[in-house]
Amino acid sequence: MTQLKLRAANLLDIARIEQIHREAVARFSAVPPPARLWGLVSQTLSALLPLSQETLIYVAEEGGKVVGFVQASGQPLGISLPAKITTLQVLNLCIASGADEREVAPGLVEHLVEQAGSKGVHRLFVRIPTDDPLIAIFRSEGFRQYATESVLYAEDPEIRSTEPPEGLRSAARKDNRRLYQLYRKVTPMGVAQLEAPTYKDWKALREGPGQQEVVDRVEIVGWCGVHRSSAGRPHTLSFMALPEPGLADELADHAIAVTDAQPAWTSLRHYDAHIIDALRGRGFTVLLTQALLVRDVTVTVPLPEKGMVPAFG
Question: DSSP readout, 48-111?
């Protein structure tokens, strides 16, 4: 058997990496188009080029040919983040057709974990469909599940009521601290401690474009965000809400109204069941269920000695 070589990707690998990625996407041809589109948005190749210092890309080479790659990036993606990145999101793990997935995939994951630890990273996250065969690879490499996420989509979402929620207003910067308090109330402690244990961590995760509104009833009890898309892509909806009677229904109606009842999708966690139920009652269906996995990494080089640098030749 040919020795498997694991190394950082370089520019000469781009064409082959893109080919492997296309092959991997084609294998899910039976998945409904909106789910495939969501996957392309979620697990994108747009960060493959070394646009930032927070991207790691490693390839597996066998007999002089690249047979797989793994990609991880800092969250959120961007070129202006500070050099000290301590958590990474695995965006892609793709194995070429004809390659032995059971040999190549574990090797790539092991290599990523080792290299991430040498760069001061202490935690790796990955989201992966619950029926994806690769989930067994991640579990065998020490990743554990901490949440489940459902992707919901509606071609023609329905509005049950045009009455806006009482206390609805535009979100302002001054609301951020109160929104973090809402996040901590609606998110299980184990999840919050992993993803956003501090206000600073949460703020870095949530900031983005789109129309954002809160439901302010002395305290902020709900939040919704609508990011209008273009080029035929569905709009993206986001929610946080206390499990108060009727609140999820009111927020769902309002968000759908903002999009003029056009195609939309959203991703919600297992603990957002009240919002999922409200959306399902308005024409949304679950396209995809994902496991959210995490692995703690042993830092092998002190942070002051070696900061995060791009692993892309």
Answer: -S--STTEEEEEEEETTEEEEEEEEE-SS--SSS-S---EEEEEEEEE-TTS-HHHHHHHHHHH
**Two structure tokens written together for 30:** 């039976």
Q: Is the pLDDT of residue 311 over 70?
A: no
Instruction: Choose the weakest-confidence range: 31-40, 126-135, 292-301, 303-312.
Output: 31-40
Alpha carbon distance 100, 118 (integer Å): 27
Residues forming CATH 3.40.630.30 domain(s) in the chain: 4-149, 157-282
CA–CA separation, 160 and 277 (whole Å): 13
Single-letter residue type at 178: R
Indicate the CATH number for domain 4-149: 3.40.630.30
210-242 per-position pLDDT tens digit? 789 999 999 999 999 999 887 678 899 999 999
Residues 91 and 242: their CA atoms lie apart, in Å, by 31
Give residues with Cβ within 8 angstroms of 242, minimum separation 6.
182, 185, 186, 221, 222
- Is-contact 114 65, C-beta < 8 A? no
* Cα R_g (the chain), whole angstroms: 21
* Beta carbons of 32 and 23 less than 8 angstroms apart: no
Secondary structure class of 222 (helix, strand, coil): strand
Residue 274 phi/psi, 5° resolution?
A: -65, -35
Task: Give, in words, the CATH class of 157-282.
Answer: alpha beta
Here the tokens at position 63 are 């007999």
**Residue 129, preceding peptide bond in cis (omega within 30° of 0):** no
Per-residue pLDDT tens for 108-139?
999 999 999 998 898 999 988 888 888 999 99
Q: What distance in Å separates the CA atoms of residue 137 and residue 204, rounded to the nearest whole number?
A: 30
